Amino acid sequence: MNSSNLNSKNEQAYLDLLRQVLNEGMEKGDRTGTGTLSHFGAQLRFDLASGFPLLTTKKVHFKSIVYELLWFLSGSTHVDYLQKNGVRIWNEWATAEQTARFNRPVGDLGPVYGHQWRNYGASKLEDGSYHSDGVDQIAQVVKQIKTNPNSRRLIVSGWNPSEAEQVALPPCHTLFQFFVADNKLSCQLYQRSADLFLGVPFNIASYALLTHMVAQVCGLDVGEFIWTGGDCHIYQNHREQVELQLTRSLYQLPTLTLNPDVDDIFAFNYEDISVHGYESHPAIKAKVAI
């Protein structure tokens, strides 16, 4: 279980941030009533050529990451696709109690990530659904990367102020920007609210995967994934789990493989995406704060 030099540079930076917030974070209240240790403003950089950043100090459920990202890219905001594929990470937000707050049927999450990525600013119908007259930000940014890779406008926004109060959980990862240099695609994410123990490992792997997928369909190699966090926090009821994770040594990062025949960002299926050589410590259970 010796640490590789490559993973020391990648996963170790995340562990260092965990330790910093655990030891130095300010105690704050939060909407869940759980309480947090919080630090404002942090950045982590991952060299995607050095291995796929799937944490090894605890097992991270890669299947859920892949299906969630494909769900975002589809533009769907109903959890039926996730549930049919055994992914439960959005179930707590899709209950009758949660959706009734917005007069939506069970399972309909409203204008969350998929809507904002694929139909931003769409006009609303009388039944609460949406016209398909919004901006397809994903299609637009892929076209821009292909035709104008030097653009400084390669941006997708998940935050729509006019709709942020129309969902139970407004987007936490709010904006990402692509950057092309030396035939390599890099991506930087800004995350307004960062649950460092539970959420951020998923977010890092998800956006690293998205960067690989976009790079492939645009004929580019991968560069860096840069994660930038706003309110970076550890929930008070996760402190014991964080302390356990920080005692663990590192394994080598796995390798991501994509089906090379896929040249359309919307054509990827679960079977087209896999990781190889993923070795990790056991998962660490923790309660999600709702």
UniProtKB/TrEMBL annotation:
Catalytic activity: dUMP + (6R)-5,10-methylene-5,6,7,8-tetrahydrofolate = 7,8-dihydrofolate + dTMP
Binding site for dUMP: R31, R152, R153, R192, S193, A194, D195, N203, H233, I234, Y235
Keywords on record: Cytoplasm, Methyltransferase, Nucleotide biosynthesis, Transferase
Main location: cytoplasm
Binding site for (6R)-5,10-methylene-5,6,7,8-tetrahydrofolate: H61, D195, A289
Cellular component, GO annotation: cytosol
Domain of life of the organism encoding this protein: Bacteria
EC numbers on record: 2.1.1.45
Family matches, as PANTHER family: THYMIDYLATE SYNTHASE, THYMIDYLATE SYNTHASE 1
Subunit structure: Homodimer.
Protein's UniProt name: Thymidylate synthase
Natural source organism: Psychrobacter aquaticus CMS 56
Lineage start: Bacteria, Pseudomonadati, Pseudomonadota, Gammaproteobacteria, Moraxellales
